[in-house]
Every structure is written in C-alpha cells, then in structure tokens.
Amino acid sequence: MNNPVIKIFPLSMPWQTQDPFLFSVYHYDQYPKGNGEMGPAPELLKGRNLGNDFNPYEKWRMYHGQTIPGFPYHPHRGFETVTIVNKGFCDHSDSLGAAGRFGEGDVQWMTAGRGVQHSEMFPLLKDDQDNPLELFQIWLNLPKASKFVEPHFKMLWNEDIPIVTESRAQIKVVSGNYKSTKSIAPAPDSWAADPDNEVVIWNIHVDANSDYVLPAASSSVNRTLYLYDGETIQMGGQTITNNHGIVLDSLKEVNIKTGNKTAHFILLQGKPINEPVAKYGPFVMNTDLEIQQAMEEYRLTQFGGWPWPYPDHVHEKDRGRFALYPDGTLVEK
C-alpha cells in the first residue's frame, strides 16, 4: 500500500488529535472596531451569553470575556500550550508575574508543569478599523517524569521563526525540522525539546492550483494534517474538502494538489508518550487520584495567586509586542 492517507475525519471543536497532542482549537473571529477600551461597543454585546459566548454562528465570540474577548485567569497543570497568533493580538498575564503581548505571527510556548494560572485576552487595539483574530492553541502532553517541572514560557517571535519557501508553498516551522531548516528551541522541559521525539508543528500554505510534496518523517510517529482553510484538495487518490483532518502514514511522503483557492494546513506530528491520560478541565495527569490532588492543591494555593488587578487583565492600549519573563527580563519588539 503506497497510499499515505490512513483516515479522513471532519473537524470538530476542539480538533481531534493523536498522542502526544491532547487537542487543538482554532479561533477565527472577525472582531469589530474597538470601543476605545479594547472591547467591542456595548450595543454589540446585547443578547450575547457573556462569560460563555462560543456561538459558532456568530462572526465573533467573547468566549469567557465580559468586556474584552478572551479567557480570564484559569489554571493549568501537567501539559503545555503552544499558541500561534496569525492575525490580531493576545495579551498574556500569569501567576508568576510574567506577561506579554504577542500576535501577527508570533507564537507563545508555555509549559504549565506543576501548575500556573494565566489569562489570554484578545484586546481590540484598533478603533478605526476591524480587529480580525486568527489563533491556534495546541495542547501538548508532558510525560509523567515532567508533570511537576517548574512552569516556563517562551516567546517565538514571528521575525525569528523560520519560513521555508518551496515553489508555490510556504512552510512556517514552529517546531521540528523541515528538511535542513531547524526550528527555534521550545521551552526546555517540553516533550519537543528532545529531537528523538520528532515533534513537529508546521503551518503550511499552498497556492491555488498547485502541487506540493509533504516530506516523510524519519521514523514511524503519529502524524495528522488539518485543512482549516481552502477548497477541495486531492491527496492519496482521494478528494478532501475544507475543515477536515487527515491521519497520515508518517513514513510516506504526501502529494497534495490544491484547488482554486490557497490551502492552509496545520501539521501535528510526534512520537507518542504512551502513558495513561487523566483529564479534567485544565488539569492533565496520569491518574484520577492525581487530578483530585491537583484540584485540591489549586484550591489551597491558587498556584501562587494572581498578582494582576483584574482576572481579565490587559496591557496598556498603546503598548507594542513584548515579553516580561518571571526573572524580570523584558523583551520589547
């Protein structure tokens, strides 16, 4: 069998993933002009289920935000998040005192480890034009040996992330190596930090009416390709429409032929951790008992508390892209 396609499935919310990934979510919101205070105009909020606005039939959502879209403070333990912001901006604040504003192609890699609280808000910075947001958040598991490492976050700035151009395709190498092109190192305790685990996160764009060959991996690992924007494509002798995932044989290269629209993909690949997974909301451990212990510790300690004035903290409106790390190091872009 030379067909690299193992399975095709429609994308749900969140996207289905394979070990070592836990899930991935894709947010595309056509946010309106800002109201001067980084939220939408009050009249646009009437009738919305504020605090739990995930209506897929609307052009944009507030998620758990009341006045500014996004996700006010919430805890994580036992895994890591990779947040890719292709359009718009995300304001990060956390219980370590770290903070940042990133977007327009930047990526934040956060290892929750033993526990951290953070908020992810989507400030509407422009008052004279719309504020579209395109964001992916990918949850990557940590093995048992790394569940209690110290929390850490790292910014991968858009200017530094390698982009490979091949004929009529562009490949943004967030994690892993694309042929001879190496990605930026992830957070130090990540499952992706060991190259033997072949963790790959690529954002691939293939022009309309083009052919592209996705190279094979060097070993047998879990590999899933997500077509999140585009029209019909041809792959492995099959016709695949937009908003579908494709489980691939990692040892086979893949010939992709696009239709009349540029096709946009996310590729997630990695060696499986092959450990039991116990999940409850923002906690991912190996057993139910460990989940109960995580919940109890969070109730007692709040994972260090919340040093910011508001649960939905955002930074100054005129602030540029920046990262403030727990040790006080400040990087401004």
From TrEMBL:
<dbReference type="InterPro" id="IPR008778">
    <property type="entry name" value="Pirin_C_dom"/>
</dbReference>
<dbReference type="Pfam" id="PF05726">
    <property type="entry name" value="Pirin_C"/>
</dbReference>
<dbReference type="InterPro" id="IPR014710">
    <property type="entry name" value="RmlC-like_jellyroll"/>
</dbReference>
<feature type="domain" description="Pirin N-terminal">
    <location>
        <begin position="60"/>
        <end position="140"/>
    </location>
</feature>
<comment type="similarity">
    <text>Belongs to the pirin family.</text>
</comment>
<dbReference type="InterPro" id="IPR012093">
    <property type="entry name" value="Pirin"/>
</dbReference>
<protein>
    <submittedName>
        <fullName>Pirin family protein</fullName>
    </submittedName>
</protein>
<dbReference type="InterPro" id="IPR003829">
    <property type="entry name" value="Pirin_N_dom"/>
</dbReference>
<feature type="domain" description="Pirin C-terminal">
    <location>
        <begin position="202"/>
        <end position="304"/>
    </location>
</feature>
<dbReference type="InterPro" id="IPR011051">
    <property type="entry name" value="RmlC_Cupin_sf"/>
</dbReference>
<dbReference type="Pfam" id="PF02678">
    <property type="entry name" value="Pirin"/>
</dbReference>
